Amino acid sequence: MTGPKRSRLAPWLLLTPAQILAVVFFGVPALYMARMSVNAHAPQSYFTPGFTFENYARLTHDPVIAGAIWNTIWLALIGSAVTIVLAYGFALIVWLKPARWRLWFIGLALLPLLISEIAIIFGWWMVFPRNGLLSVALMSSGLITDKISLTYTEGAALVGQVYITLPYCFFILLSVFDGLDRRVLEAALDLSAPPLTTLYEVLLPQTRAGLLAAFAQAFIWTMGTYATPMALGPDTLWTLGFLIQAQMLGKHHWPMAAALSMVLVVGVALVVLLTRWLQLQQRSFHV
Amino acid sequence: MSRIRQDQSLNRRRLLQYTAAGVGLLAMPAIIGRAALATAQTSFAGESLIVVPWSGNYELVFKETVIDPFNAQYGTKVESVGGWDQMVPQIIAAPADNPPFDITVTEEFIAGQGQSEGLWAKADRASIPNLDAVYPYFAETRPGYESWGVPFAGGTSMLIVRKRLEIAPDTWGVLWDDRLAGKVTADGSSWWWSLSVPAAMSTAHPGLDEMYALATAEPLFAKMGQLKVARWYMTGAEQANLLNQKEADAALTYSSDALGFLTDSPDEYVAGVPKEGTSAWTDWFIKVRGTRHNDLADFFLNYLLEKETQGRFLAKSMVFMSRKDVTVPPHWTGYPQSNADFHKMFQLITIDGWAKINANYQAFDDRMKQTITRSAG
Q: Exposed site from A31, A160, B188, B243, fewest CB < 10 Å?
C-alpha cells in the first residue's frame, strides 16, 4: 500500500472499532426496535409477528399521546434553556476564579453524578412538601406565613430535570471556556466595554458552539427521562417516557412502546442534526 | 460333604435373608415416611436451582425463611433472583431448553400470560403430598389451572389510616369520608387494584366481576372519580413518601407495604382488611418448561407447603398462606380461619378476569386517565 493511500485510510481504520461498537450496541437495537414497532399485538401477548402501521396511526389521533408529546417537548425545551443559563453562569464563575477554587467547584458539580436519579428524587421529596425543608426554611425566615407545598407541580418537575442535566452542561461549557484566551476579556475591559456588552459581544460568540452542544445534551437527556417528571410533577404530567414504560410494563404492548420510542429517537436525531447544522453554519461564518 | 456345606450355606443365606426381611419389615414405616428426605439428602446435595420469588422485601424474607433453611437441610444450592413483571419476557428470550430460572412465582396475570405462551411445566402431584394440607380456596379460584405449580401464599389490598384521626379501617367507605378529603392516595399505576375497591364494595356482581367489562366498570370509575385524592401514587416509594410527609392520611395499600408501615411506625398508622372484603392475588410457584432440575423443583415445591416453612414466612409478612394449619403471628389480626373466610375476605382478579380486561386494556387505561385528570381538577 502506498503512503498517501495508507494515510487516506488511516482515519477510517482508527474509527472502525468505534463504528463497530456503535453498530452493534446502537444500530442493531434501533433496527430491532423499528421492526418491533410495526408488529401487531394481541391481548395476553407481548407482540404478534406481522406488519402494520396501526401503532403509528394511533400516534396521530390519540389525545393522550399528543398531550404526552407536547409535555415532553415543553419540559425538555424549558428545562434545557434553564439548564444552560445556569450551567453557563456556573462555568463562567469557575473559569474566572483562581485555580485553587476550581477543584472545589468541579467537585460540587460532580456530586449529582455520584447519586442515582431515584436517590435524587427522594432528596427532592424531602425538600418540596408542605412539611419539607423548603417550606420550613421559608417559614423560619419570615418570607411566608403558611406552609407551602411545591411537590407535584410542573415547577418541581422542572427543578428535578434541571438538577440532573446541569452537571453535564457545566462540564461541556467549562471545557469550552478553558479553550478561550482570557486576554480577550481584559482587552474588552481595557476598551471600556461594560460587563454585559463583553458577555454579548465577546464571550457568547466564542462559546456558541459549546452552548449548542450543551443545549443538545440537556434536551436529549430531558426528552428521555420519565422517573423525575413522574415522581415530582402533577398526576397528569404524562410524558413520552412515561407512556413507553407503561406500554412495556403495564400493557405489555411492545409494538406500541417501540413506536413511541421511534418518535423519541427521531425527535432526538432531529435535534442533534439541527445542532450540528448550526455549528457548521457558525464555523463557515468564521471562515 | 459338599451337600452338607451346601445345606449349611443355604441355611446361612436363608437366615440372612429372613433377618434382612424382618429388619426391613420392622423398619418399613420409617423407611416409607423418610424415603423422600433420605433420597433428597443424598441425591440433591450440591444441585442448584434458581427461583424467582418476587423482588424487594418479599425476596429477602423468602430467602431467609425458605431458601436458606432448605439449603441448610439438603445441601442444595438454591438461589433466588428478584423479579416483578419481567419473568415472562425473560423466559421467552431464553432458549426453550435452558430457561433463566427453574421456578417462578406467578399471580393471576403472569400465570395466565405464561400459560398462553406455553411457558409452564406441570408439577408432579405425586411428589407434592403437602398439597393435601392446602385450603381448597386456591384451586377453586384458579379452575383449570390448578395442576400448574403450587399455591404458596397470597397478598391483598389493604386500607391504612393515620391513627390519630381515630377512623377505623373497617370499611372502604373511609376513603370517601369528608374528614379525609384531599388526604387520600391510591394506586394510579396499577390502577386495577384501585378499581377493585369500589368493585369489592359493590354487591351488584359476585366477586370482582363488575370490573371485567368496561360497561359494568363504568359506575366503578365514576365512584373512583369522587375520591378527593392528594395524589395518585405511581410507586410504593411514592405512597410511603405521601404518608410519611403527611400529604396523605389514608391510602389503598398492599399487604407487603402495610407490614412495613405498621412495623416502622406502630403509633402512626392502623391498617386492616375492610369488612366488604378486599382484592387479592395468589402466589403460585410454577416450574418453568425446559428446567434441567425437574425432580429438585418438585421437591422444592413440596417444601414450600410444609407447615414450618409456611409458618416462618408468615411470621415475617402479612400475606395469607395456603396451608390450613399455620401459626398466625400477633400482627395479623383477623386472619381467615376457614375456606369460607378466604372466599369472603379475598376477591381475586381471576385469570379469566384478566383475559377480559386485557382484551380491552387500552379503553380501561384511557378511562383511568380520565378519572385521574378529573380528580386532579
A: A31
Residue B156, beta-bridge partner list? B280
Is A245 in the B-facing interface, judged by CB distances under 8 Å?
Answer: no
* Of A45, A129, A246, Cβ closest to residue B247: A129
Is this complex's ipTM strictly greater than 0.90?
no
Closest Cα of chain B to A133: distance in Å?
11
User: How many angstroms separate the CA atoms of A253 and B167, rounded?
Assistant: 41
Measured between beta carbons, the chain A residues lying within 8 angstroms of B241 are 122, 125, 129
Read off the DSSP letter of residue A128: S
| Cβ neighbours of B232 in A, within 8 Å | 235
pTM reported for the whole predicted model: 0.83
- Is A44 in the B-facing interface, judged by CB distances under 8 Å? yes
- Look up the domain containing B104 and give its range: 48-153+280-337
- The answer to whether residues B254 and B371 belong to one domain is yes
Q: Which domains are delineated in chain A?
A: 67-286 (1.10.3720.10)
pLDDT in tens, B139-175: 999 988 888 999 999 999 999 999 999 999 999 999 9
Chain A residues closer than 8 Å to B229 by CB: 235
Q: How far is CA B250 from CA B158, B230, B264, in A?
A: 11, 10, 17
B285 backbone dihedrals φ, ψ, rounded to 5°: -95, 125
Residue B1 lies in a domain: yes
Per-residue pLDDT reduced to its tens digit, A222-258: 998 889 999 999 999 999 999 999 898 888 899 999 9
